[in-house]
Amino acid sequence: MKYCSTCGHPVEQRIPEGDNRHRYVCVSCETIHYQNPRIIAGTVPVWEGKILLCKRAIEPRYGYWTLPAGFMENAETTIEAAARETREEALAEVDIHGLFSIIDVPHINQVHMFYRATLIEGRFGAGEESLESRLFAVEDIPWDEISFPTVRKTLELFLEDMKTENYQVHLKDIRRPMSARGKA
Ligand SMILES: [Zn+2]
User: Fold this and answer.
1) Which domain holds residue 103?
2) pLDDT in tens, 69-104
3) Domain for residue 64, yes or no?
4) What pLDDT is recorded for position 176?
5) Residues 43-64, mean pLDDT to the nearest whole number
6) Which end of the chain has fewer CB atoms at under 10 Å, N or C?
7) For residue 27, what are the contacts with CB-CB under 8 A and spacing of at least 6?
8) Cα(75) to centroid of ligand 1, in Å?
9) Å from CA of 34 to ligand 1 middle
10) Within this chain, do residues 59 and 85 fall inside the same structural domain, yes or no?
11) Whether residues 146 and 103 fall in one domain
């Protein structure tokens, strides 16, 4: 952040009085611009034992397969966000059954939440952000072409719970890989 979104003057980094972290503070109007983690909400859409994945038509990870998910918008609930992203990316209406995974990704300031869902009447398509959507049998999941670590982790957990049909809520975190730690 370089400029104040309130008045347009430059911001500087400093610790405001009573705080203990550096914040962006406007040099002119003194507005403190807090930055906090963002929530990504999505679904694991299932139909007749298969899982719906979308092939991304946008960067990052163009051409890789993902669960439908995206940034939560203001004024919606996480379930509404998950359903909306599923509608936008997979042109699919879903019944949402419950929370499945919450994955903290602290090094990029994100929290990913996935809900278990069933496609209504098995209908889906490819939204503007998807090249195509496809139902994958468990043994056909394209593990080498999965878009993001949170999607991979959620799929791994889901396949595990599928075996017993005993679905838990999984709280996980994904931290920067060891190999990348020294570089940042
Ligand atoms: Zn300002």
Assistant:
1) 38-173
2) 999 999 999 999 999 999 999 999 999 999 999 999
3) yes
4) 80
5) 97
6) C
7) 9, 10, 11, 12
8) 25
9) 13
10) yes
11) yes
